[in-house]
């Protein structure tokens, strides 16, 4: 067993893990943070997306032991994030979820897309979402929610786009 | 706990990593991003007695903008290259290639050295480094070794890296102003491993290199298509590619052959029609 120390959702955490333990399994089975969903378990579906040191990563293909000393945020840690709450409201208003299985990963990806692209067009959102699978195929609502949340969060970028067109 | 049990070591510096790897040999495997290696271990396609975590070694994060070359450390992530956080020796070609690897969450973790070291036949960097005429820099207990990308890729998941060596980075010649390039990738869905990926580089000095990967054993240069590209003859590129892809991918069915010829032709066409880069 290896001792690891994480900052998880803002709190210091010490845990003993076997080197072969996958981060997603430690989060879900041991720490009961079941908002991180496991779909494909080999990095293809995006349901398990969390952030590690502030950037999105797939917790199903990351070893927990390699996260020693790092900062991990799961969907549970975003409850008090003002930006995520705006995105969540737009997901609600645009009917961007059906069964909800992909939603935690979609939200983690959405926040990153909006941070990097400010005011992404539809093609950009769809390209960026290619690694997040919604098996209800509810992409119309998800794309609309990300675009409308981006417009609310970055109104200056929105007007710049209008001014250029 | 999907992977079989293994030991984990995190050496403090490159010297310690090389010493440890020299001792353990092929029972150990270096890991940086782990974005292909960890799922392969989870699926029990591969396994090791020890994983050597080299993701935090400063020596592998070095980036140098030299007079004739750019050196990119092995632990530089795909996302850093995509975002232009390291100098691009090829006027945006590397950023373009990086942006098409898997998905952003994978690109944040995955590294260029890991991709080259694993040498999945359908991965992007081996093909790109061949097209750019790059060199692979390796460190071992005996010191440093520099190999041309051309001799580095030997087969599926097989390279000229000795099990006791660590890839420290890549020396990539800078294209001079006036160079052009093109790339075309066919994959079942965006982010999936490619069925076929071709990268064509046409230097300002008139030299051309066309590299192909995907369903081949390993990424390779196509000398005939490269010569035709240097001559600026797109029809000849297509003709040369027809003969060369049949040799490069002997198991290919008619679809795969057409797919390879198409990616080679489109990459060459983009290079020929591109505004020369400055």
Automatic annotation (TrEMBL), chain A:
It comes from the Bacteria. PROSITE patterns: 2FE2S_FER_1, 2FE2S_FER_2. Residues 2-78 form the 2Fe-2S ferredoxin-type domain. This is 2Fe-2S ferredoxin-type domain-containing protein. It comes from Azorhizobium oxalatiphilum. InterPro entries: 2Fe-2S-bd, 2Fe-2S-bd_dom_sf, 2Fe-2S_ferredoxin-like_sf, 2Fe-2S_ferredoxin-type, 2Fe2S_fd_BS, Beta-grasp_dom_sf, Diverse_Oxidoreductases. Pfam families: Fer2 (PF00111), Fer2_2 (PF01799). Keywords: 2Fe-2S, Iron, Iron-sulfur, Metal-binding, Oxidoreductase. GO terms for molecular function: 2 iron, 2 sulfur cluster binding; metal ion binding; oxidoreductase activity.
From TrEMBL, chain B:
Residues 1-177 form the FAD-binding PCMH-type domain. One of its GO terms (molecular function) is oxidoreductase activity. PROSITE patterns: FAD_PCMH. Keywords: FAD, Flavoprotein, Oxidoreductase. Pfam families: FAD_binding_5. PANTHER family: XANTHINE DEHYDROGENASE SUBUNIT C-RELATED. This is Carbon monoxide dehydrogenase.
